[in-house]
Amino acid sequence: MCHSRPLARGMRFAQRHNIQMEPTRRLRHEILLTVARGSFGALDRVELSAMEVTGMSRSSLALTVNLVAVVAVALGGCSSSGSDSVHASQRSQPTGESQMFRVPSKDGTLIAVECAGAGPTLIIVHGGIGDRTRWTPMFPQLSSHFTVCAMDRRGHGVSGDSPDYSLQKEAEDVASVVDSRAGMVFVLGHSYGGVAALEAMFLTNRISKLILYEPPLQEPVDHDLAVARKMERMIKEGAREQAVVTFVTEVVQLSPGEVAAMKSRPAWPELVATIDAQLRQMRALAAYRFDPTRMSTVGQPTLLLTGGETRSPYIKQAINGLQTSLPHPTRVVLEGQQHNAMDSGRDVLAEAIITFLLGTTDQDVGK
To answer: Which domains does the chain have, with CATH numbers?
Structure first.
């Protein structure tokens, strides 16, 4: 049967962990999200969630994984003719076997990281909503060139969290993951993750090149705080999806077409699930001040990525500010893209990444 692989892996996990509590709601959520994305191979990452609970009975896990198998069939995950399920699986599966591990940050918070491939390390820091799975679909394009590692930012995916949140802690998380790797590493930060990656440059000397994809460094404070208050009301009223739409339209300023495309992608449920964290991030950004003089001390080569169809004037202002203040900037416009090229333009994005980091053009990118 087509679901025997996840079932067998689940049973092997149950046998390794002779523990007694029922599965937590979070663990069930992780498993079901994994299946919904069509990524059976990603079931290994559920172990990270399971480690956080006190225990689980073998019979409970077997029941849960059997439920997963049933849901998989219902979702078309076993269909050989359903193009949607096949494409979702292709998007979620890295080239070769990926590995999961955790890195303690400065305050002890455990940060989950998924790596695949071989070569110099490239660490990817995802944006404000969602988790590392926004970027793992790009592993096939990148893993033949790099040991590519996508991290879950604190409070996202299967990383830990702390009650005392700050942008500084996010930067410390990135620096801790960087310092856990051997030798010099590359770092790519997207959106809010780009701000964390940029600030990590001041905390470690192990980053050799930096890529920033539309970091929101110079946002309109009063406007964004007003939007955050509106989103908070929506979340309290249970209108979580509308809160996400409000964020991506009024803050990120995505086009209606791009918003509709986001809703149709497998990552959408995870974006809705993590919208709460966006509120604290918006407030942290409101207190952040971009300092060109300080940025002039970042000596590493930096690639500034922006979409050719990006609408936000504040993103363009941030890219311009970085280009004039960083000592060694390279600016690349991703034609036909907006804020989410890792979803809609993976080949062109991968080519820009590889060319900048390795100084080569690969004709086979995306094949």
So the answer is: 4-92 (no CATH), 99-219+284-358 (3.40.50.1820)
